[in-house]
């Protein structure tokens, strides 16, 4: 210890402040060590609109990486969603998740691919989803008949 540290310790102990200061320092150190309360998982959340209307409770959302479905959930609160994508555990061949922040996650809503795709990170990331609905039917006589029954 250098002379400055010895003097500070004597001053803090003599004034009865050593313990409170030590506790505060320990809290700051422990807070900076844990970068994310989610560990290595990526929690994705945001708003979800379908045709300009808030998505209904029960709407299915799936996260896919390289064509493999990693996790699936449903909308629990109208118009918002959250889905947790785990970090892949390479020691377990059965585990699913993202391997690195360079992976590309694509979301599917009720089986349809939506934009934007994104890169996962440890912690929380906000990704708002807005799906515009269109009727893509070939306008032939048969297309017009099919459109009547959709």
Explain what this protein looks like in three dimensions:
The protein has 150 residues and is α+β, with helices and mostly antiparallel strands. The chain has two domains: 3-33, no CATH class; 42-131, Immunoglobulin-like (Sandwich). The chain is 24% helix and 33% strand. It has three helices and nine strands. It has helices at residues 3-14, 18-33, 141-148; strands at residues 42-50, 53-54, 60-65, 68-74, 80-85, 105-109, 112-118, 123-126, 129-131. Strands 1, 2, 5, 8 and 9 form a five-stranded mixed sheet that branches. Strand 6 (105-109) and strand 7 form a beta hairpin. The longest helix has 16 residues, at 18-33.
Q: Secondary-structure element sequence?
A: HHEEEEEEEEEH
Can you give the helix content as a percent range? 10-25%
Radius of gyration: 25 Å
Give the tally of β-strands.
9
Domain tally: 2
In angstroms, what separates the terminal alpha carbons? 79 Å
Dominant shape: elongated
Do you know the CATH topology of the largest domain? Immunoglobulin-like
Report the sheet with the most strands, covering strand number, pairing sense and barrel closure.
5 strands, mixed
Annotated CATH homologous superfamily of the largest domain: Immunoglobulins
Give the strand content.
25-35%
- The CATH architecture of the largest domain can be named as Sandwich
Query: Structural class, from secondary structure content?
Result: alpha+beta
User: What count of helical segments does DSSP give?
Assistant: 3
- Kindly state the mean pLDDT as a whole number? 78
Just give the CATH class of the largest domain. Answer: Mainly Beta
Low-confidence stretches: 21-36
């Amino acid at each position: 210890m250098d002379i400055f540290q010895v003097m500070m310790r004597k001053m803090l102990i003599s004034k009865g402040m050593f313990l409170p200061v030590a506790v505060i320092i320990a809290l700051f150190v422990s807070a900076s060590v844990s970068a994310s309360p989610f560990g290595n998982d990526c929690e994705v959340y945001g708003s979800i609109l379908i045709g300009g209307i808030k998505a209904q409770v029960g709407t299915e959302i799936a996260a896919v990486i390289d064509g493999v479905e990693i996790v699936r959930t449903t909308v629990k609160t109208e118009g918002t969603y959250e889905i947790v994508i785990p970090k892949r555990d390479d020691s377990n061949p059965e585990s699913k998740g993202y391997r690195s922040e360079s992976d590309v996650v694509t979301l599917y809503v009720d089986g349809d691919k939506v934009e934007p795709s994104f890169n996962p990170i440890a912690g929380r990331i906000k990704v708002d989803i807005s799906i515009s609905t269109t009727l893509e039917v070939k306008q032939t006589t048969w297309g017009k008949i099919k459109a009547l029954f959709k």
